[in-house]
Amino acid sequence: xxxxxxxxxKFSIYNSIKMKHLVLIFLFIFQFESWxxxxxxxxxxxxxxVLDSNTIVFSSGYGDDIFxxxxxxxxxxxxxxILKDDFCSFDDKVLYIDGELCDVNExxxx
Length: 110
Description:
Elements lengths: L2 H33 L2 E2 L7 E6 L2 E5 L6 E5 L9 E3 L4 E2 L6 E3 L2 E3 L1 E6 L1
Antiparallel strand pairs: 1-6, 2-3, 3-4, 4-9, 5-7, 7-8
């Protein structure tokens, strides 16, 4: 084998390993992005239902319902204001619940 072909072989193996790492990094980032749900038009919701102390489903006369898990405690008698029209999981200061600014842990259309 000539010297130049050895160098080419080493370079192509290096590129192959490098490409595998890039693919793995891309898949990891893509997987994380799929965890972070986003919603839009949340301020159109006019009703809510409390599923448990940290989970709310917002609904309106049209469109999909919005499932929200928050770090704040929520009761069926709570006063809730949606502060952002468009938001994603782990956004901060999205809801105003009983006089407290609340961050969102998880959100998705259902």
